[in-house]
C-alpha cells in the first residue's frame, strides 16, 4: 500500500522516513502538492488540509502540521511559527524572552499528523517539552527553532543533535509513532 506525504519541507521528509522506514507493507512517497493552510489550531489546519488533498488525489495521504509554543508568551508563536521564524526569527524570540529566567522559559513543540483515506480523517498528536535556550546554539543540524530549543533531559539544543538523535524524541516522532501504530493495526485487519 502506498501512502503519500504532502509537504514541501525536506527536513520533515527526512525525519518521517527515519521513523516510518520499517513499516512493512507500506511505502511512503513524499509529494509537494500545495494545500490551503487555514488559520486555526494545528488540528484544524491538518484536518482541512488532508481532506482537501484526499478529494484532489483520491489516494491515502497524510500531512503534518507543527508549531513551537512558548508558555510564558501564551503559546506564541504557535500556529504562527512559520511566519514568525521568517520575520523576527530566533534572535527576535530571544529578545522577547530576555526578562524570563529558568522555568519561565518553558516551551514545547507540537505536531499533528492528519491522515485521510476512504475511511475518513484521523489525527495523531505528539508533543516534546523543554526550554528556550539563552542563546542560539547549533552544530548545523535541524531547522527553524531547533537552535533555541533544549528538550527535557538534555543540555543540547535540537540543532546540536543529529537528525537521528532529535528524531528519537521529537514531537514529530511521537505523532508519527501513533500514526504508525494505527497503520500496523489497519494492515492486520
Ligand atoms: P508547518 O508545520 O510546516 O506549518 O511548520 C510550522 C513551523 O513550525 C515551521 O516552519 C517551523 O518554523 C516550526 N517547526 C515545526 N517543527 C519544527 C521542528 O522540528 N524544529 C524547528 N522548528 C519547527
Automatic annotation (TrEMBL):
Q: Which UniProt keywords apply?
A: Hydrolase, Magnesium, Metal-binding, Nucleotide metabolism, Nucleotide-binding
A biological-process GO annotation: nucleotide metabolic process
Residues holding Mg(2+): 37, 65
State the organism of origin.
Methanothermococcus okinawensis
Q: What is this protein called?
A: dITP/XTP pyrophosphatase
One molecular function GO term is: nucleotide binding
Q: How does it assemble?
A: Homodimer.
Query: Belongs to which family?
Result: Belongs to the HAM1 NTPase family.
Would the keyword Hydrolase be found if you checked this record's keyword annotation? yes
Residue positions of the active site? 65 (proton acceptor)
Report the EC code(s) recorded for this entry.
Answer: 3.6.1.66
Entry note: cofactor: Binds 1 Mg(2+) ion per subunit.
Write out the GO cellular component annotations. Answer: cytoplasm
Top-level division of the source organism's lineage: Archaea
Task: Note whether Transcription regulation occurs among the keywords.
Answer: no
- Entry-linked NCBIfam families: PRK14821.1 (NF011396), RdgB/HAM1 family non-canonical purine NTP pyrophosphatase (TIGR00042)
What catalytic activity is recorded? XTP + H2O = XMP + diphosphate + H(+); ITP + H2O = IMP + diphosphate + H(+); dITP + H2O = dIMP + diphosphate + H(+)
Broad EC category: hydrolase
